[in-house]
Specification:
Keywords: Oxidoreductase. GO terms for molecular function: oxidoreductase activity. Pfam families: Aldo_ket_red. It comes from Halorubrum sodomense. By secondary structure, the chain is α/β, with parallel strands linked by helices. The model has no long low-confidence stretch (mean pLDDT about 80). The protein has a four-stranded parallel β-sheet with strand order 3-4-5-6, covered by helices on one side. A two-stranded antiparallel ribbon has the order 1-2. The chain has three helices and six strands. The chain has one domain: NADP-dependent oxidoreductase domain (TIM Barrel), CATH 3.20.20. The two termini are about 25 Å apart. It is globular and about 45 Å long.
Length: about 130
């Protein structure tokens, strides 16, 4: 596998990354937790260490599934890029967008959903 530096972070990521929009959820094109686990296992076995997720991917379900998937692997070697933008709480006027408050809340949600002390790479953009 070839690796490259992620922006100015100094973090090395595989040139191939795995998007997780299909992990979890009820649509016909979504993967079950078992199918997603197989994707993650295969990716890691082939040297892929870069996974992309967003708060809007199945209302956090993709992050829950991803957090359960890489058991038995050194999680410190995996890099997760988390995107936040879309409002996840219609009752909170500060939810959504790219304010500091919204980004910090979505980062906290992502860490809860991932169920691990990952440090996602926040990306300024729409999920």
């Amino acid at each position: 596998m070839e690796y490259t530096t992620l922006g100015g972070s100094g973090t090395k990521v595989s040139r191939i990354g795995i998007g997780t929009n299909t992990f979890g959820g009820d649509a016909d094109w979504h993967l079950s937790a078992e199918e997603a686990r197989a994707v993650v296992d295969t990716a890691i076995d082939h040297g892929i260490n870069f996974f992309d997720t967003a708060n809007a991917y199945n209302a956090g379900e993709s992050e829950r599934v991803l957090g359960e998937a890489p058991d038995g692997y050194d999680r410190d070697r995996q890099v997760i890029a988390m995107k936040a933008y879309f409002r996840m709480d219609d009752d909170d006027p500060n939810a959504g967008g790219l304010s500091r408050k919204a980004i910090e809340q979505e980062l906290a949600n992502s860490l809860d959903w991932l169920a691990e002390p990952y440090e996602p790479v926040p990306i300024d953009g729409h999920g």
